[in-house]
Design goal:
Helices cover about 45% and strands about 15% of the residues. Helix 6 links the parallel strand 5 and strand 6. Keywords: Methyltransferase, Transferase.
Amino acid sequence: MILIGESLNVISKKIGKAFKERDPKPIQEEALDQKAKGMDYIDINLGPAKKDGHELMPWVVQTVQEVVSDLPLVLDTSNIDAIAAALKVYKPTEKPVLINSIMARPERYEKMIPLAAEHNADFIALLWGPEGLPRDENERAALAVELMYAANEAGIENERLWFDGIVTPVNTQQDQLMSLLNFQMMLADIAPGSKSTCGLSNVSNGPPSHLRPILNQTYMIMLERYGMYSVISDPLDEKLTDIAKGNRPDIVEVVHAVMDGEEPDASTQEMVDYVKTAKVILGHSLYSDSWLEV
């Protein structure tokens, strides 16, 4: 599993302050830490960046690439001018720069796809359409085809498309989690050669903080089994990184067994917790904040 570090984010008090004050030290320390923790990409998330994004994004890119020049970066903002400015100063890496993201809305992708084509950038194709969140895997598929055709017409091959079917919180949209899994199984037929990614931590957005890691870890295992190529993840979750890099096959086997309808021999409390969490995500149990205690 390819990991995209999510912590260089404007919502962080420390990083947000560094962005605002143009202080390179916290930004460079965070970038180096993400590299040390095994991230494969570093996401630079400015949020909307409406006021000064066209100046801030290229500055952050240059600041990060001064100390981490070998990892590809992800340009994450809804400000198209900020993306365009950053692409002009980006120093090429072995893997292409990744634009996060291009929505399945003509007013967005008609402007942004030519930008990706011009700079040979990969891009995350966000399956958020004119009506918002897709209702099911079939609506996700329709939006994916629309974006794929638009990209192909601009000369962008499927291998440069990273589809994001959108992860929803387990405590409010539990049924959508299975819909995304179903879409992942369809993607190889819909867009052969394409990749996929997601904002993994969205699945645990809302539940108590101590329950977030096991939700993220369990859903990542499920998504990977159904073809997910990468996730945007928390670099501080070292257990998740271990699982993603193949160092915890015991956890993976237990989750897979639950997915197969089996009752695995969970001999430790750790494994029991993963069994319970997998059942919640699959909809076998209703979500509650106390699912591990039942």
